[in-house]
Amino acid sequence: MDHALRILSLNLHKGFSSFNRRFVLHELREAIRTANADLVFLQEVIGEHAGHARRHANWPPAPQYEFLADTIWTSHAYGRNAVYQDGHHGNALLSHFPIEAYDNHDISVGRHERRGLLHCRIAVPWLTRPLHAICVHLGLREAHRRQQLGALAALANRVAAAGEPLVVAGDFNDWRQRAHRRLATDARMTEAFIMCDGRAARSFPVRWPLLSLDRIYLRGLRPRSTRVLTRRPWSHLSDHAALLCEVETC
């Protein structure tokens, strides 16, 4: 098959640079465009925030995911996870191809960290079956992540029937790298950077990446190439590095 899908995953950090020093959403939009990705998996995306809108003159009137999609990604989905007085944020997926259906699945453990799995079914013209995409942002506590990984594996097995390709990408907060074996055993998923480079990508903190927090897992697909985007402008646009991966069918 000559066709390939370009996948980008990034923790948006709500449109602010490291330590919230600058509002950089406009620069992020330009950087994301240069990646020329077919599918963009985004975490910590603000849907609405009245306080930021008052403080920043260049705050967009549209939700961040719509502002980023603009006219480039004609289809997008948003899963609202955390709701607070000024607004809400969650995960989003931008797609060059039609998103036929999507659902946001609450995987929060306890009351404090609100987390979700955004599942989208996407019609890719050259694929004979729908592509399933799940955008992930797991919790900070390992005990919570164990439960959330179980929920992720169950969701993947439920929504993606045998033979249907699956991409799971996002911020796993899995600094001990426990997810690889769990997802391989429970959901037959393999991690793209491990397949290509022999190890998971180091993505955090972006200026001096030491921890492998961000991942792209695949089923029914294989990676052609992988890149960790740590140089300018990416190094000044979030506290996480962006991951870029090109994949094809097995």
TrEMBL record:
GO CC terms: membrane
Entry keywords, A to Z: Endonuclease, Exonuclease, Hydrolase, Nuclease
Top-level taxon of the source organism: Bacteria
Endonuclease/exonuclease/phosphatase domain span: 9-240
One annotated GO biological process: GPI anchor biosynthetic process
Alphabetized GO MF terms: endonuclease activity; exonuclease activity
Matches recorded under Pfam families: Exo_endo_phos
Record-given protein name: Endonuclease/exonuclease/phosphatase family metal-dependent hydrolase
The species this protein was found in: Sinimarinibacterium flocculans
